[in-house]
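Quick one from the shared queue. A colleague (R.T.) flagged LLM class flavin-dependent oxidoreductase as missing a structural entry in our internal table.

Convert sequence to structure tokens.
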Amino acid sequence: MPRPVRRPHPPIWYGVSGKLMLRRAAQRRAVWVGSPRHTIDELAEHLAVYRQACDDAGFQPRELPIMQGVYVAETREEAERIAAPAVTHLFRELYGRKSAEGERQLRNDAGAVIEDSATVSFDTFKNRYIIGSPDDAIQRITEPRDRLGMTELTCWTQLPGIGGADVLSSARLFAKEVIPAFRD
């Protein structure tokens, strides 16, 4: 409720990562959205489960969106100085704490399960984000596009603790220097 105006209904995207939910997304003919919580290798594993379930359901999605946290600055060092505290906070206080409590398993970039949230730092999770110079961003976007077949990138641009002026600066630089590289 209310009944959708669009027939059969508006497109539904599922941002899930567990095998059961990946299969459910395919059975419901929903597009899967890759989560910024995971590495490219983990997303590839999720995608394999989802694609098999899509084949089983006779569903061939035309889209493969992936969400990534994005912060772009003139240099990688500047981007990391501004964005690293946000990534550390998010992965330590939210995802890392839940993993340490056994509620929702999280692996660092090296593949180790987080059992103590104090071990979480920007360096142990930075491969999940597009944080760096415009050239770094172009390279980081190219990988999921080429490896996974990503058709859309959903940019999470206001990471926790990054101020509005910095967010706008990053968005403008992204629009000016990164987007044109993907206009084809």
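The CA atoms of residues 175 and 183 lie 11 Å apart.
Residues 67-184 form one domain.
Added to the table.
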